[in-house]
Amino acid sequence: MNPTIEESLEEASPAEAVPSNFADLGLAPAFLDAVRDAGYTTPTPIQLQAIPLALKGRDLIGLAQTGTGKTAAFTLPILQRLAQDAAPNGRGPRGPRALVLTPTRELAAQVDESFAKYGKHTKAKALAVYGGVALDPQERALRRGVDVVIATPGRLLDHLERGTVKFDDLEVLVLDEADRMLDMGFAPQINRVVAQVPKYRQTMLFSATMLPEVEALARRYLRRPVVVQVGRRSEAANTVTHAVYPVPRDRKSALLVELLSHSDMDSVLVFTRTKHGADRLVRHLERAGMLATAMHADKTQSQRTRALEGFREGTIRVLVATDIAQRGLDISGISHVINYDVPQQPEDYVHRIGRTGRAAQTGDAYTFMSTDEIAMVRTIERLIGQPIPRISVPGYDFGTVAAD
User: Fold this and answer.
1) The CATH number of 5-229 is which of 2.30.42.10, 3.40.50.720, 3.40.50.300, 3.30.365.10?
2) Class (C level, CATH) for 240-403
3) Smallest Cα–Cα separation from 184: which of 126, 101, 128, 113?
4) Collapsing DSSP states into helix, strand and coil, what is residue 110?
C-alpha cells in the first residue's frame, strides 16, 4: 500500500515558524515596505511557515482555510525571486518566469491585484489571463512580455494553442485552490498546461483540503514538497459565529428581509443553490427596498466585475451568489454569510462561510434550514466537529408555523 501524503512528505517543523514579523521572514526591504503600505504588520500562520520555505526554493503544499493570507504566502517569494535575478535592464527574460493557475476569473483578478500591491516598488510585470473578455488585449500584453501570468486553465490553453505565450523560462508554478480546480473538472487542462512548462522548477500547491485527487496531483507534479498545514482539515474558521434558522422553504425570503430589516448586517453575502433562485431572490429584496445584486455563471464578466466592485465599495449591501463565489473572493468587511440554501456538499459549507471572519476579523454565518435540509445540516455538523446553535424566529420557525 502506498503511504499517505502525510507519511511520505516532509512537514514543516515548528522551528521553521519561529519568526513573528515580516522582517524576520527573509523579505527584502522593498517588500517589507509594500507589506507595510498595505497595512499589514503581523504575518498569518500560513505566511510564517510558507514564506521562508518558498524563499529557499522548496516545493510546498499549503493546506489552509480561505481567508488565511495564502496569496501573499506565494506572491511575496515570487516577487523577491524575480527582483533578485532580474536582468540588468530590469526586464528579465521575455518569457514569463512564474505561472499561477486559479479556478476562477475572480480569483485570477485578485491574485493579479496582490502582485501589483506587493510588487509596487519593483519593475515586475504581472498579467491576469481569463475568459469572458477579449483575447486580443491579453495576446498583445503577452507578446510584449510579462514576468508573471495568472490564469484560468481554459483561457491559458487558448493562448498556448495560438502560440502567444511560451514557458521556456518558467521558474515557479503555483496551483492555487487546487481542490476547487479539480472540483470544476480542470484536471485535463492542468495536465496539458504543466506538460508545456520546464520539468525543473519550483512548484507550490495550495488547497483548503487534501482530497485523494489533490494528493495525486501533488505526487505527480511536486518534488519532495514540504507540507504546511494551518488548522484542521475541513475546520471552520474560529473567527466565525454559526447559527441555523429553521424555516419553511417558502418563508426563507421573508425571513431574510426580516433579518436585514432589524440587524447590523452591513455587507451580506447570500448563497443560493441555483442561478434562477439567485435572480428571483434579488428581485424580492429589491421590492423590499434592499440594495442587492446577483452573481452567477450566466452573468457576463463585466456584470460580475461591477457586482463585486459595488459590493466592495458598499453601494450594494447584499450580494446573492451561487457557488461560483464560494471560493476565491477576497473581500474585506463581509459581516454576514447566509446559506439561503444548505450546501449539498458539506465541504462547501466551510468554503462558503470562509468569506467572512477573514484575516482575524469576526463574522457571522447563518444557515436557513427547511425540513428537507435537516439531514444535510447534521452532516455539516459532523464534518466541522461541532453542533450549530438553532435560532427560532417567531412566525418563521417551521415548528411554530406548523403549530399555527
Assistant:
1) 3.40.50.300
2) alpha beta
3) 101
4) helix
